[in-house]
Fold:
Amino acid sequence: MILAMSYNKPILISDLPPAKEIIKDGINGFLFQAGNSFSLAQEICSVLSNPEKMEEVASNGYNFVITKLDWNVIGLLTKKTYLH
Structure:
C-alpha cells in the first residue's frame, strides 16, 4: 500500500483497521467494505468513472507518504521520542 502510494498510484483497499490508520477514504485512498465483493465492485466502478478524483487521491497519497512516512521524518520523530 505505502509503496504504491510512493509511486503516486491510487489505493483501493479493504477497510480493515490497519489500512484505516493510514487511508482516509476519498482523501488519500479508497476503502471498500472488507469481505464484501459487491462493495469492492462498486468502488472500482466509482474510481474508474472519475479519473480526476483518482489523480487527486493518488497525489494526496503521495504527499502523505513523503511528508509523514519518509525515513528522515520517522528518524527525527523516533529521535525526539527517545530524547524526551
In short: The longest helix spans residues 51-68. Strands lie at 12-14, 30-32. The first strand starts at residue 12 and ends at 14.
